[in-house]
Design a protein that fits this description.
By secondary structure, the chain is α/β, with parallel strands linked by helices. Helices cover 46% and strands 13% of the residues. The strands form three sheets. It has a five-stranded parallel beta sheet with strand order 2-5-1-6-9, with helices on both faces. A two-stranded antiparallel ribbon has the order 3-4. A two-stranded antiparallel sheet has the order 7-8.
């Protein structure tokens, strides 16, 4: 396993089961290494919001071709919903997968990710939620090699399925700025975002049935991606997603103590 230079960090991957506790660890990395969070979940929700604003209320499953395991043509979708606006079409596809509690297909996720990564000049990023499949991992390595940029290490936030379900159903988010709260560990004062002063909400994909679906998807698809990246020489650091005493300093220490183990001396 390669050691890393903590004074020269370019890009870090953060992975783990949905609801494992990634965000507080991402916050540590952002502060310690002056990185920016690039979240595929946020990208998907951005396009989902565009589609929701369009107010189409038909059954989205009609657009998924089970035999081909992909969407029908954009022309067919556009004729049915009444617009060929690309952002609306992407939003429809994002909403379909969110409603099913499934990861998006690689060809859609890779396209969305590459576009946003390019805007960031391929560096200074915490890759949150990407890659989540073996093909995405191969695409990412090919892209970074092409652009001559570095993937320094992977953070795997470890937590049990049972604890994740208990935690995630109590998660709340500000619909305006995206700040994340938790009814037990980080409760919003009077149910409102401290920054925007509006009511926080429960995301549609934070219901128990959808959480269980995402946990299964992680085991089937994301774990092989992580193993592949390790095989390619990218160091992996496992950090606990649950702490008996949850404080900002304890989270920071639990992350940095593990990273120090793979740092250049």
């Amino acid at each position: 396993m390669n050691s890393i230079d903590l004074d020269n960090i370019h890009n870090v991957i953060v992975t783990g089961k949905s609801g494992a506790g990634k965000q507080p660890r991402i916050d540590v990395l952002a502060e310690e290494f002056h990185l920016e969070q690039l979240s595929t979940g946020d990208i998907f929700r951005h396009y989902l919001g565009i589609f929701n604003d369009y107010t189409y209320d038909g059954d989205l499953t009609q657009f998924w071709d089970k035999k081909q395991n992909r969407f029908v043509s954009d022309t067919i979708i556009a004729e049915e919903i009444g617009t060929d606006n690309n952002d609306v079409l992407l939003g429809l596809k994002a909403k379909y997968f969110v409603e099913q509690g499934l990861f998006g297909p690689d060809y859609i996720v890779n396209s969305l990710f590459e576009s946003t990564f390019a805007e960031k000049k391929y560096t200074g990023q915490i890759l949150d939620g990407y890659p989540r499949t073996l093909d995405q991992a191969k695409f990412l390595l090919s892209l970074t090699e092409e652009k001559n940029v570095t993937l320094d290490f992977i953070i795997l936030v470890d937590n049990t399925d049972e604890r994740i379900i208990q935690r995630t159903v109590q998660r709340r988010i500000c619909p305006k700025c995206g700040k994340v709260y938790h009814l037990k560990y980080k409760p919003p004062k009077e149910g409102k975002c401290e920054k925007c002063d509006i009511d926080v909400i429960q995301r549609s994909d934070d219901k128990e049935e959808k959480i269980k679906s995402r946990l299964l998807e992680f085991k089937k698809k994301a774990l092989p991606a992580i193993e592949y990246l390790q095989e390619q020489g990218i160091p992996l650091v496992k950090v606990p997603g649950h702490l008996e005493v949850f404080t900002d300093e304890n989270v920071r220490k639990s992350v940095m103590d593990e990273i120090q183990k793979i740092a250049k001396k």
